[in-house]
Amino acid sequence: xxxxxxxxxxxxxxxxxxxxxxxxxxxxxxxxxxxxxxxxxxxxxxxxxxxxxxxxxxxxxxxxxxxxxxxxxxxxxxxxxxxxxxxxxxxxxxxxxxxxxxxxxxxxxxxxxxxxxxxxxxxxxxxxxxxxxxxxxxxxxxxxxxxxxxxxxxxxxxxxxxxxxxxxxxxxxxxxxxxxxxxxxxxxxxxxxxxxxxxxxxxxxxxxxxxxxxxxxxxxxx
Length: 222
What we know:
Blueprint: E1 10-14, E2 18-22, H1 24-29, E3 36-37, E4 41-46, E5 57-65, E6 83-85, E7 91-101, E8 107-112, E9 117-119, E10 122-124, H2 126-133, E11 141-149, E12 153-161, H3 169-177, E13 188-191, H4 206-221
Parallel strand pairs: 12-13
Antiparallel strand pairs: 1-2, 2-3, 4-5, 5-7, 6-7, 7-8, 9-10, 11-12
């Protein structure tokens, strides 16, 4: 925004269906938002039962537009369950992303449905914990996963990167937990010394981090 004053626009969306945009003046007031739907696009939120969530609210993002795709070509199982029908008879595509609308309809991205952690019956969004960790001077990047827990069902564990050769992970955990809500508190912080595993789009492959953590935990038990 400093390099392109009054000229930086941000777009978010899916090539399959729709997109949002936020203008430079709007970013100043809502820097965490991805804006509102482009013309000929519509976004709504639904809960776990498939019911629409009223604004303001949080849920899975569903979208529709004049140019949305019919299906994935040769997609097979990918096409199962990707549609959601509204009570007014409109067909939306489920994005698999979790979002939140404010009272004016601005959209905020909260993560992926498959990455959401359910701890003690409460929804925990990794992105909120990751953003907190990134404000720690010793942390350059963070990725939070959910791991099984006999009492809470799942608990958050953080993998963090640092420029420090040796990182006080217990200190980082205590620092973060002092800033997080009780149900968000980290069970453990792991110092990850290389780049996180990513797909071709640069998204962190959290399933691989879960596998690494569980393998390490099983080895410790043996």
